[in-house]
Amino acid sequence: MSAEKEAEAGKIPELYPWHQENWLRLRQSIAADRMPHALLLTGPDGLGKAQFGVAIAASMLCTSPADDGMACGQCKNCHLFRAGTHPDYRRIEPEEPGKAIRIDTIREFTAKEALTSQGGGYKVIIIEPADAMNSSAANSLLKTLEEPVARTLMVLITSKPVRLPATIRSRCQKIPFTVPDHKTATDWLAPQIGQQDATLLLRLASGSPLQALALTQGDALKVRSAVLDEFCKVLARKTDPVSVAARWNTLQLPQLLGWMSGWLIDLIRLKMVPATENLINRDQKERLQALALAIELKALYALLDKLLDATRTLGSQLNSHMLLEDLLLTSVTIKQRNARVDSRIV
Ligand SMILES: [Zn+2]
To answer: CATH fold of 218-345, please?
Structure first.
């Protein structure tokens, strides 16, 4: 459940262990009466930035926060916050995921009267994802940031800060989130995943603990195995790449491209050093070792380049079916025919 849904469902969100440093720094700003008018929470997805933002909002609105700065959960303001009816808390988000945040929405929430607290305390406005603002919405917000209202805090959240105008970025205090160290991540993840391999899950999730946990909750790992089987069959020319592309086109493209780049990075690593302990896909090492023997390094780099180009265009109006066909048809050509290797990978 997302942080905002949790807040709506009556919970004050908790912080994750890797949030502590940022939380402490923010509390120092508050204690020194240096709370900025706008915060910019940045960093990869899957680190709980939204949850952190909601925790800030709850804390700023709470009348008797705990010693660690977290909202008490009991006062009148906390009750209103938990009920999702606090008049001094607003979330601005696209009407539908993937759509833009428009100027009308920004204007509605950032008009002078809308920025003034009704309860006499703070007003907190979260904008997420902030990079979804179109340029006129961003310009409108910029005006608000240039003439801030006292005791109003704007919290902008994004994993793509470069998509925000530099003028907006420079008017916010940045709170960067980075993937936690391996111990912090595994200490949090391991108790929640039973016998599953925490290291493998974290590597597949590029170090993001929340995404690693999410992998265990749906059928993503099964899908990963199935697409790797198909990819190997394509390389061994034992299946038709065009029909595989049609099948893959029904899957989640960002995740699929992520899986593929993980295999290619592992294959490149294996071409350079035979050691397998640092592989992302460490559960697939025998298969990848066999493949690495039959593919030229240059071909792997070429395919990885193509894949990274495709990843960069994600979110734009691309024809995903053609893109997958192109990737798979290129893949067919990179492996030399070798019956002995084929028997180990398929
Ligand atoms: Zn409270």
So the answer is: Zinc Finger, Delta Prime; domain 3 (1.20.272)
- For the stretch 279-294, pLDDT in tens is 999 999 999 999 998 8
Gap from CA of 80 to ligand 1 centroid (Å)? 9
Domain boundary assignment for the chain = 3-178, 218-345
Distance (Å) from CA 44 to ligand 1 centroid: 30
- Tell me the pLDDT tens digit for each residue of 88-141: 999 999 998 889 999 999 998 887 667 778 878 899 999 999 999 999 999 999
Distance 190 CA to ligand 1 centre (A): 32
> How far does the centroid of ligand 1 lie from the alpha carbon of residue 76, in Å?
7
- Give pTM, 2 decimals: 0.85
Is residue 105 a contact partner of residue 97, using CB atoms and an 8 Å limit? Answer: no
List all residues 6 or more positions away from 232 whose beta carbon is below 8 Å from its beta carbon: 287, 291, 345, 346
Tell me the two tokens of residue 45: 């997805």
Distance from the alpha carbon of residue 180 to the mean position of ligand 1, in angstroms: 29
Domain 3-178 of CATH type 3.90.190.20: no
133 secondary structure, DSSP code: B
